[in-house]
Design a protein that fits this description.
The protein has about 575 residues and is of the alpha+beta class. The protein has helices spanning about 5-20, 25-40, 45-55, 55-70, 75-80, 90-105, 110-120, 130-145, 150-160, 175-190, 310-315, 315-320, 365, 380-400, 405-420, 425-430, 435-450, 455-465, 470-490, 490-510, 515-525, 535-545, 550-575, and strands at about 210-215, 235-245, 245-250, 260-265, 280-285, 295-300, 320-330, 350-355, 365-375.
Length: about 575
Amino acid sequence: MLATDQWIMIAIFIATFTGLVRYQNAPERVFALAMMACLSFGFVNTDEVFINATNPGLVTLILLISCSFAFERTSFLRVVAANLITKSVVLSYVKTLLTTAFASAVLNNTAVVATLISPIKNNKYINPGRLLLPLSYAAILGGTLTLVGTSTNLIVNSMLIEQGAESLAFFDFTLIGLTAMVACLLVLFLRIGALPKTSADSKADKHYFVEAKVTDDSKLIGRSIEENGLRSMDSLFLVEIIRRDHLISPVSPEEFIQAGDKLIFTGDVSKVFILQQFDGLKLFAQQEDLLRDNLTEVLIKPGSAIIGMNLKKAGFRARFDAAVVAIRREGATLSGKLGDLVIHSGDFFILAVGKDFSTRTNLSKNFFILSGLQADNMLFGWRDKFTLFGFLGSIGISVFFEIALLKCLMFYLTALFLFNCLSINEIKRRFPLEIWLIVMSALTLATALENTQTAVLIADTVQSFLEGKSIMAAFVAVFLITLVMTEIITNNAAAALIFPIAYNMALGLGVSPLPFVMAVAFGASGSFVSPYGYQTNVMVYNAGNYSLKDFIKVGLPISITYSLVVLYMIPRVFPF
């Protein structure tokens, strides 16, 4: 007979599953309510909750995500992106998908995809619709290669550590993941033709107008636009070159850079600091020494004293303690030097402001101040290189010297703060609270299952049900249930919910839990059919204007291939 607390625990578990299906956009709230229910009924105590909140695997996951904030601001992914797509379509596919996969094995695959979306959409050799969805699939497959490749692997590892087992090693996933990746990429190449061609985005009038000057000592000089990687930047597009008062437009990829060239870009002004990563490229506002992290967007008022003047004559620094970073004019395409543009009523300016800007009495007469604009603060110079090699070094030291990844990341994160490569404010602003809450709550749910003996009940039930039957059947069932749940409630939620069931099933069968643990990890990463099961799928779904039908046509054969390979490989690498 089941005890009352076991009935209640089972009810909480079923309610958690139902809530995750019903409220797919808020899994952290569902898990948090489940945790509080366990606490309210006394199935866990506060000490156990706090222990779960500081689980070494969970802390490693949080530190890894935090360190990736700095890595995303390096030039590494931008430089890689600039060299992926060439005139050879087949070679471009191979380079793009393999680079994405292997980069996702050690980096945040969401950041990898985010960086590559814009270059893919702006390339002129491959239709974006034929490459964006494969990009997401490659990132998913690459994430299965290592312990840190995806948050799902780290979540499963943290729950395994909570059971008193040793942490999974960095390359424990590699052989299985690599085999699945090769098989799935081969199927993907055969199915690319089934993807729709999408129309390229037109350059919107709302894009800002940004100017950067090539200094005399720039390393860009003597190399073409394409060689310098100036054609495929994230959300910025080179539209003109002004050379000794001569306008070059449109700009050919074969055009060579000369000293003194003024490069005119349009696009998302929040990406403006990417231009600082190019050696010898100086933004217009840098001449005023006012380029800062926080920018201010203003609208020129009718009757402003500077209307009819160009930026040089207006004397922004003297008048407002500000320098113009970019200009936008509704319904018009701007052209020429930024400093020579005549100011119109209704123009939008992005200003880099000085300390005295807010105290100037003439602001309200000339501007409507719209908002502060947070630009992406890209790293350059020695900080760019330190962040890149420091990250790779931390991973390498952990792998080859068997020092805990947690310790390596603690030292690396401290160095990022010390050398001003990452700020406390950025950590506060982007702290992965949702992931932390999901994993902490899932660990607490698993603890409650243990404390109420419900876990033992599950193990005994599975043992009696499968008595005389194949262990392989239970293993396949765990994988398929996780796979389906991933498509319904997202990968992290599926892994966190299914793990305690899978682990106790293995105990009930008297076999090693590792094959079942791996079935959860790989099942939770196998989102190929739903646009919403994995974050990178959501990103390309919107960027490529895909439909659910496109995901099913291409993703279903890949999902079947992935499942067959993984189910074949796991028991051979991790025997029962």
